[in-house]
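Tip: read the tokens left to right.
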């Protein structure tokens, strides 16, 4: 079969971009090493297979030089306090997918003559942290002790997701690209991102992260919405990068979850408990890591004590994650991967003939009968 001319540097770029090793690619393509030296050229079918394996658009292999991938939103991610230079295909595709959803949602809301959301960008970096956190709670219709009414912090996490959607914010939690369970999102690369918009702000939380970390991530993302700032981040040990936006959003997140006015009083009694961090977590319905982090910020425990606890906590979470199965109802999962509010609008638009079904399928990542069954699970009647 005839070969095609592909520059070795483009193959190297695709390999590195996808985070694959030479060994992994050689197992799939026995002459891969010869492609790298230019001694042998691949066939078109092999380039197509390589494109699928590296999640690379086919046409990129025929460019004169490797393109430079970049995110279209501010990148607050760091590794050892240095910026992360290259986003993975999984992150790039996820951001692009969410941007398409947001663009559709914005247009739909404008057609419906909806008003812009008044709270988006209503504060700035000079605002008072306590005031911003209080305004977030006000918009969501909760008070400082809202989580105490929840049975567990996981219930509080689900309740927070629901309240955020009801406020008009697009809320997505997923640990994979679309519905492709073979393409897992890496929490070391990013924990979440926010897409700013006055009509359809979007929050994406990496669902591959420990659920105990997702609460703080969501609160951090809400702060981004309130100051009108898009961005992708990878909070490590709930620490923000050395950036004024991230630091400010972290402070708001902490105040939103555990108000300072209540934290000091609660710590007085919690210290008498055999497990004081757990006692604080029970009180505010957050994970123990969030409770410990707040205590550190308020100077009630030392940074050393926090990081010792954090390392032990992460080891325990990893053990629990290994034991847990990946079960769950597929259609319930779509409520967080797609979002009930967004999905309902897309389904309604398709049923009314305002968009083609093929476009509705592409927006939701659900096709044919799967799309119809999900629509039924949301209360829509069977399509005619």
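Filled-in amino acids:
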């Amino acid at each position: 079969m005839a070969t095609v001319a592909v520059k070795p540097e483009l193959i190297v770029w695709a390999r590195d971009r996808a985070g694959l090793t030479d060994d992994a690619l050689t197992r799939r393509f026995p002459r891969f090493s010869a492609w790298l030296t230019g001694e042998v050229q691949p066939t078109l079918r092999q380039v197509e297979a390589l494109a699928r394996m590296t999640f690379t658009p086919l046409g990129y292999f025929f460019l004169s030089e490797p393109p430079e991938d970049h995110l279209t939103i501010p990148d607050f991610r760091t590794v050892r306090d240095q910026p992360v230079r290259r986003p993975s295909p999984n992150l790039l595709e996820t951001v692009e997918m969410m941007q398409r959803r947001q663009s559709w949602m914005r247009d739909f809301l404008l057609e419906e003559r909806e008003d812009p959301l008044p709270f988006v960008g209503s504060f700035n970096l000079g605002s008072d942290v306590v005031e911003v956190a209080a305004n977030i709670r006000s918009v969501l219709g909760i008070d400082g002790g809202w989580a105490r009414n929840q049975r567990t912090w996981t219930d509080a996490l689900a309740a927070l997701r629901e309240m955020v959607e009801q406020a008009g914010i697009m809320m997505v939690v997923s640990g994979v690209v679309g519905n492709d369970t073979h393409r897992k999102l890496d929490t070391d690369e990013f924990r979440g991102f926010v897409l700013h918009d006055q009509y359809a702000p979007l929050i994406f939380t990496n669902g591959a992260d420990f659920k105990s970390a997702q609460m703080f991530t969501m609160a951090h993302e809400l702060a981004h919405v309130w100051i009108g700032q898009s961005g992708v981040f990878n909070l490590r040990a709930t620490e923000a990068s050395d950036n004024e936006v991230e630091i400010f959003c972290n402070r708001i997140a902490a105040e939103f979850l555990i108000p300072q006015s209540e934290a000091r009083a609660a710590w007085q009694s919690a210290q008498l408990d055999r497990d004081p961090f757990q006692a604080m977590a029970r009180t505010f319905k957050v994970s123990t890591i969030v409770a410990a982090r707040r205590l550190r910020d308020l100077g009630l425990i030392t940074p050393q004590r926090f990081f010792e606890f954090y390392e032990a906590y992460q080891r325990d979470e990893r053990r629990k994650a290994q034991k847990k199965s990946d079960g769950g109802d597929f259609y319930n999962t779509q409520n967080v991967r797609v979002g009930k509010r967004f999905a309902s609008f897309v389904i309604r638009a398709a049923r009314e003939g305002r968009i083609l079904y093929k476009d509705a399928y592409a927006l939701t990542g659900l096709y044919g009968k799967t799309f119809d069954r999900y629509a039924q699970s949301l209360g829509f009647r069977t399509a005619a």
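The CA atoms of residues 210 and 317 lie 7 Å apart. DSSP finds 16 helices and eight strands in the chain.
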